[in-house]
Design goal:
mainly beta; Ubiquitin-like (UB roll); Porin; 3-stranded mixed β-sheet; 8 helices; globular
């Protein structure tokens, strides 16, 4: 980027590239380039920029000024306003934001200043505005500062005379013959054409776009220097010459890592979205760097293309600085229906390289006590594939059942995350459970304790067409769960658990998003009385029908405890209204649990309420307060739910 200096620090960031126009005329044939200004030298003062201060003293016969009137005494403090004149509305809009961010007058506009301070700021800002106009192609721009009194204040007016807009007579992008298949696309990426204004910002943006596009096109060693601009003040035309050295198209060679690297070259290649022999694309480098950071094992990652073993290949050098691999975390919480809860966990994210994490977790609460160990290998044989293995011992005392369970499980999944949100995700696994449970067998009998041995093959398939993982504003999501299971309780019997979830999002204004969801579930193959209580469907709570307690909806036994069922139907609708970082969410939910294999949508229980959202940098934090519209006996009138992310 070519740029000139300004008389104030920081102005060079705003006054763009090529104010290299000298004072003398250049021949119309562009035979001679204008002299280039030293970027570090101050600008010469422009003539005629003295500030004419008004005489605010009363004339003979005039009444004396009020105590609020402005005065020109050297030490007096004055209030002042700043105005720009002489620019058309479009140019004013384009220049004002840049001018306001750099203006000395604007920086002190809310503070009193004396005559000398205002005079100095006015002259500096006159130079600044002239430079901004010149950077937009008004090379003959002049700005005169004026000071006038108005209603007891001083008004500083910068009167601009932009002059004629200079335009490009000729634009030459040389060297693209070295990339014949992409020459036209590269010219379009640059975007500057004959008769365009000599606008420094546009030229700089075009140069940056060309550099990005040529890297995307497979030229990792291309050289795109700053363009040369030659200005003819007599004809008010300019020519632009940009010499590009493509350096030849390249294909990927090897992944190269230093000795003792955190990840082997083989594992990095597994994470990369490119393979040896494919055309080079610059975006692959940033994608690989982000993916390595997302492992949680790297603090700093550099990914650099370098010449390969043959002239037409490019190797990718990867250097990773490890992050601390261990984490200890704690959690305290309370929920309506769930009671108090404390959890602690220890994790080593690379105990079994590469990316083999071990997590130990313990929970103590009024309704849950558990200990678990989990193994997780990320990027297993393929990027974003995760291998898991779990062993857990738990005691749950829920509204619908009480269970003491030992679990062994393993699975593989393709998952989405905040950094890389995916359209399609899936999972497949196996579970073995031994569970001693007490729950209602039907709506008439009292609870009884039984032991179940269960084998399950759970699987999921999901499509995410929304625009955000935690805070969607448009699109839809659809997911299905299917788990064939075999249970041993006195005799062996089988059944299948199925569930479908769908949600949709529609923005109706800048502040309002409408969202809705449905959930349907079914268990086929066995009666509800034979199925372990922990494997039945329940409804109610923050992720279900808000306004009701956890598991509180559906059939109940003689002691008014929920029994669960073989099918469920739920829906939810809400309006997400946002005000800056905060928002309010009125909502209406409904649903019910049924003992039959298919829901008949009768006896729906409705809950309504209002939520508050705080939109943090990592997603919305929600607090929902709900109440049941048609409660059953024993239902609480108010329920509160707190979590990260929207309700659905």
């Amino acid at each position: 980027m070519m740029c000139c200096s300004s008389r104030r620090p920081g102005a060079a960031l705003a006054v763009a590239a090529f104010l290299a126009a000298a004072t003398g005329p250049v021949s119309p044939l562009f035979a001679q380039a204008e002299p280039v200004l030293d970027p570090n030298s101050p600008l010469d003062p422009l003539p005629g920029l003295g500030v004419d201060w008004p005489d605010l003293a009363p004339q003979p016969g005039e009444p004396p000024p009020s105590a609020q009137a402005a005065t020109t005494e050297a030490g007096a403090d004055l209030d002042y306003d700043v105005r720009l004149e002489g620019l058309d509305p479009e140019e004013t809009e384009l220049v004002t934001a840049q001018f306001d961010s750099l203006s000395a007058l604007k920086a002190g506009e809310k503070q009193d200043a004396n005559v000398a301070q205002i005079d100095r700021r006015a002259r500096e800002d006159a130079d600044l505005l002239a430079e901004l106009l010149q950077a937009r192609g008004y090379y003959d721009a002049e700005v005169e500062p004026r000071v006038t009194p108005e209603a007891g204040r001083v008004v500083v007016t910068l009167a601009a005379q932009p002059g004629e807009l200079y335009r490009f007579a000729r634009v030459e992008v040389r060297g693209l013959e070295g990339a014949p298949d992409q020459a036209e696309a590269l010219r379009q990426a640059f975007g500057i054409k004959p008769q365009d204004p000599v606008d420094a910002a546009a030229v700089n943006a075009g140069t940056a776009a060309l550099r990005q596009r040529i890297g995307q096109g497979g030229f990792p060693f291309a050289k795109v220097p700053d363009p040369e601009v030659i200005v003819d003040h007599e004809s008010k035309l300019a020519t632009l010459v940009l010499n590009v050295e493509p350096g030849g198209a390249q294909r990927y060679g090897r992944i190269v890592v230093p000795p003792g690297s955190l990840f082997s070259a083989k594992h990095v290649q597994r994470i990369a979205r490119f393979k040896p022999g494919q055309p080079y694309e610059a975006s692959d480098m940033d994608d690989l760097r982000r993916a390595l950071i997302a492992t949680g094992l790297a603090s700093v990652v550099t990914v650099t293309p370098q010449p390969g073993a043959t002239p037409d290949t490019v190797d990718v050098a990867v250097r990773v600085e490890p992050a601390p691999p261990r984490t200890i975390a704690g959690e305290l919480g309370y929920g309506t229906g769930e009671g108090a809860r404390a959890a602690i966990s220890w994790q080593h994210r690379n105990l079994f390289p590469p990316e083999g994490a071990l997590t130990l977790r313990a929970v103590a609460g009024t309704r849950e006590q558990s200990a678990a160990a989990s193994f997780r290998r990320s990027n297993y044989h393929k990027r974003d594939h995760v291998l898991t293995a779990d062993v857990a011992l738990s005691h749950l005392d829920q509204p619908g059942y009480e269970a003491r369970t030992f679990l062994l499980g393993a699975g593989i999944e393709r998952q989405s995350n905040i950094i890389f949100q995916k359209k399609w995700t899936w999972s497949a696994g196996v579970q073995l459970l031994a569970s001693n449970e007490r729950g209602a067998i039907n709506s008439l009998t009292s609870t009884a304790r039984r032991t179940y041995l269960i084998g399950a093959l759970p699987g999921t398939l999901a499509y995410d067409g929304s625009d955000s993982l935690l805070d969607p504003t448009r699109g839809f999501r659809l997911s299905g769960r299917f788990s064939p299971e075999v249970s041993l309780q006195n005799t062996v019997f089988g059944y299948a658990r199925m569930q479908i979830d769908g949600s949709a999002y529609q923005r109706v204004s800048d502040r309002v998003v409408l969202a809705g969801r449905i959930r349907l579930g079914s268990i086929a193959g066995a009666s509800a009385d034979r199925i372990a209580p922990s494997r039945r469907f329940f409804a109610g709570g923050g992720g279900s029908v808000r306004g009701y307690g956890y598991q509180a909806i559906g059939p109940r036994d003689a002691d008014n405890n929920p029994t669960g069922g073989r099918s469920l139907a739920e829906f939810g609708a809400e309006a997400r209204i946002r005000f800056g970082n905060f928002g309010i969410v009125p909502f209406l939910d409904g649903g019910n649990i049924y003992r039959a294999a298919l829901p008949d949508f009768s006896g729906l229980r409705y809950g309504a309420g209002l939520g508050v959202r705080y939109h943090s940098s990592f997603g919305p934090i929600r607090v929902d307060v709900g109440t049941p519209i048609n409660p059953q006996k024993g239902d609480s009138r108010i329920t509160v739910f707190v979590s990260l992310g929207q309700a659905f």
